[in-house]
Specification:
binds fe (iii) ion, eight-stranded parallel β-sheet, 426 residues, TIM Barrel, globular, binds N-(iminomethyl)-L-glutamic acid, Urease, subunit C, domain 1, 37% helix, 2 domains, alpha/beta, 18 strands
């Protein structure tokens, strides 16, 4: 009999989301790897055994045992695309949009992302950290234990570095683990309007090297998650294809891994370029063409869809996630939590929306917020599934059928969050 730190037993469904050393593509997304009446053995924060409760209890013993009592156990959710470090909110803009204003028109007239930039520039590092901590608290209650976070509300060197520092401080002081992404190419700030090429040059010659230098001196670099992403918003009124390509190429040369906001409103052709440059993910994909979906399916890049954005715009048009999965893509789902296009901390809501409007089945939606989103942030070695050797980041849900997370919407199915083998919520 082997002793371990913790056993979780009697899960009616132990939903492993285990994959075969690759992101789940196409039909594989239908398989969530359920072990009926399952149990998990945990030591030193990692999973060291799993199987049916009967089998596992023959092999492992522990002073600490949690009886899941017929509930479902899943991997904790991995949030692969957010902009949660910012100051203030955009409630006024929300009202303008209700009255008919358009997101890109608001941005063009100096509102939208730019209004958050103004508030974020003014905020002290402490204020920024505390406001963002509040958002992470909500996400943790809702089952997220690792979260990618982008800069992009600074748009000058000093504030972009302040945002990176806020991400590092939050990673050290919050139970959610953060993965940093540098996004100075998020919008054109007022001082660079009509000088977009010059602003792009500044990003490439000054901001990217300074961010990489910051990263190499940060605590992240010494950890297992020793990478940082570069991202760009390739869109009308933001960065055109040529500018986006320059940012991606420069970032790649400097050692960043690649992400890109592509085709959120307009297809400017960046999906193909990002895939050809081995992007870890391409995100949004609302206006992506069939040829590009085919390329995505043939690649190792994960497609991230953000159905909360379309829902927030009151739209009934969504990225064609169904087609992407049917054509063989690896798909992840994210909230895109941000103050403008998606003020939403709940991946459970994102799953519910993706089932209704993008026609994902609950199994596909669950894989999309666990194993595939771990791949979408380069954390697949450690996270996203219940497999021996992975971190013991799990959820005990208030349901005996994981599909209920998608079926009943608007609430919270998380009963307990286990992080590194320790119960931190519930
Ligand atoms: O992913 N598209 C660009 N960036 C965010 C929105 C940020 C904002 O509106 O503040 C997005 O939708
Ligand atoms: Fe985004």
């Amino acid at each position: 009999m082997k002793n371990c730190d913790l056993i979780i037993k009697n899960a009616q469904q132990l939903v492993t989301c285990a994959s075969n050393k690759k992101a789940k593509k196409g039909k594989e997304m239908l398989d969530v790897g359920i072990i009926k009446n399952g149990a998990v053995a945990i030591s030193d924060g990692s999973i060291i055994g799993l199987g049916t409760t009967d089998e596992l209890l023959k092999e492992f013993d522990s002073k600490n045992q949690i009886d899941a009592n017929g509930k479902s156990v899943t991997p904790s959710f991995v949030e692969c695309h957010t902009h949660i470090v910012y100051a203030g909110n955009r409630i006024d803009e929300f009202e303008l949009k209700i009255k008919g204003a358009d997101y890109l028109e608001i941005l063009e007239s100096g509102g939208g992302i730019i209004s958050t930039v103004e508030k974020t520039r003014k905020a002290s590092l402490d204020e920024l950290v505390e406001q963002s901590r509040n958002r992470l608290d909500k996400m943790l209650e809702l089952g997220v234990s690792t979260c990618e976070v982008k800069t992009g509300y600074g748009l000058d060197t000093e504030t972009e570095l302040k945002m990176l520092e806020a991400i590092a401080l939050l990673d050290k002081s919050h139970r959610i683990d953060l993965i940093p992404t540098f996004l100075p190419a998020h919008a054109i700030p007022p001082e660079w309007k009509r000088k977009e090429d010059e602003f792009t040059d500044l990003i490439c010659s000054e901001m990217l090297p300074k961010a990489m230098n910051w990263f190499e001196n940060s605590h992240f670099y010494k950890q297992e998650k020793s990478h940082i992403f570069i991202d760009v918003f390739c869109e009308k009124s933001a960065f055109n294809l040529e500018q986006s390509q320059k940012v991606i190429k420069t970032g790649k040369k400097l050692g960043f891994k690649i992400k890109a906001h592509v085709d959120e409103f307009t297809n400017l052709g960046c999906a193909k370029f990002a895939i050809e440059n081995n992007a870890t993910s391409i995100d949004h994909l609302d206006a992506t063409s069939i040829d590009e979906i085919k390329l995505l399916a043939e690649s190792d890049t994960v497609g991230i869809v953000t159905p909360t954005v379309n829902f927030n715009f009151g739209s009934t048009e969504f990225a064609d996630a169904r087609k992407m999965v049917d054509m063989g893509c690896a798909l992840a789902v994210s909230t895109d939590y941000n103050p403008g296009s998606a003020p939403c901390p709940s991946l459970q809501n994102a799953m519910a929306i993706s089932c209704r409007y993008q026609k994902l089945l609950p199994a596909e939606a669950l894989n999309a917020v666990t194993i595939n989103s771990a791949y979408a942030i380069g954390q697949e070695k450690y996270l996203g599934s219940i497999e021996i050797g992975k971190k013991a980041d799990l959820l005990i849900l208030k349901t005996n059928d994981y599909r209920e997370i998608c079926y009943e919407f608007g609430g919270n199915f998380v009963e307990k969050v286990v992080k590194n083998g320790e119960v931190i919520i519930g």
